[in-house]
Write a structure and sequence with these properties.
single chain, about 290 residues, alpha/beta, Protocatechuate 3,4-Dioxygenase, subunit A, 6-stranded mixed beta sheet, 7 helices, 14 strands, binds 3-methylcatechol, binds fe (iii) ion, oxidoreductase, Catechol 1,2-dioxygenase, dioxygenase, iron
């Protein structure tokens, strides 16, 4: 075990810093995602059913005025702290993803989470992710192949990849990390193959100093996600897969606070003289 001697001198990311950034990144991405075309009928139904679900909890749990006012203040804090993307992606996105997955064939997806940033450096099929010269963490060589449903390799497919560092922080959402650190778009070769050299990320902890962390602590839950890699895999004419990959035996795999693990998303790593290797292939369905 090594210690980080300069930890005290580094500006450490705060909940306000990372959460507010996630709000800005989300607003900036609204063009990419497109606005939902919601009819009056659909809005009526969804809003009414959501409110009914809340009313039911109030009745059945006999929610008191002090509890109601505490919730109101907490909701205000989530917004002012910029934590709505964090909160919703941790506690709601997994269900939206499972509904989307009902019509999805090919590789399993899971939630995107709040820390994707578009427009990262494009890299060739055999690439090392941008990282600091003294990037901490065990070396990981992650490789695989992108194919279609018929098993044909997809050349020129994009593996849009992002991950936390060995302290669990994401570049773009932590003031001490260089832009683009441990992010990149890897383009597959003629056989649809890619090889990415990076480091093993640490588990991710929901910031404990913000309203989401306060709610988790108040409920007596733990704030951890298992260590994971994020990817979007896309190819012309094919439906994009947004997913995450986890590490066999990793801590928190069975109790992810974001409920986003799936058995088929667990990597089986091998330890070599040079660090870890992992192989995972992706299958994309037609768009
Ligand atoms: C993460 O790193 C993440 O992947 C999700 C889904 C939510 C919070 C932090
Ligand atoms: Fe993540």
């Amino acid at each position: 075990m090594t210690t980080t001697p300069d930890l005290a001198t580094q500006p450490s990311p705060t909940a306000a810093g990372s959460g507010a950034n996630a709000s800005e990144a989300f607003r900036a991405s609204s063009g990419r995602r497109g606005a939902a075309a919601t009819s009056t009928e659909r809005a009526d139904r969804l809003v009414r059913r959501t409110l009914e679900a809340i009313h039911q909890v109030v009745r059945e749990e006999e929610v008191t005025y002090p509890e109601f006012q505490a919730v109101k203040r907490w909701l205000m804090d989530v917004g002012e702290g910029g934590e709505w993307p964090l909160f919703l992606d941790v506690f709601v996105e997994h269900e939206v993803e499972k509904v989307a997955a009902r019509t999805q064939h090919g590789s399993a997806g899971t939630i995107e989470g709040p820390y994707y940033l578009p427009g990262q450096q494009r890299l060739g099929p055999v690439a090392t992710l941008p990282m600091r010269v003294d990037e901490q963490g065990e070396r990981l060589v992650f490789s695989g192949q992108v194919r279609d449903l018929d098993g044909r390799p997809l050349a020129g497919a994009e593996v849009d990849f992002w991950q936390a560092d060995a302290d669990g922080y994401y570049s773009g959402f932590a003031p001490h990390l260089p832009d683009g650190n441990l992010r990149g778009v890897i383009v597959t070769d003629d056989e649809g193959r890619f090889t990415i050299t990076t480091i093993k990320p640490a588990p991710y902890q929901i910031p404990t100093d913000g309203p989401t962390g306060a709610m988790i602590a108040a409920a007596g839950w733990h704030p951890w996600r298992p260590a994971h890699l994020h990817l979007m895999v896309r190819a012309d004419g094919h439906r994009q897969v947004t997913t995450q990959l986890y590490f066999a035996g990793g801590e928190w795999l069975d109790s992810d606070v974001a409920s986003a693990t799936k058995d088929e998303l667990v990597l089986h790593t091998e330890h070599t003289a040079n660090g870890w290797t992992a192989v995972y292939d992706f299958v994309l369905e037609p768009a």
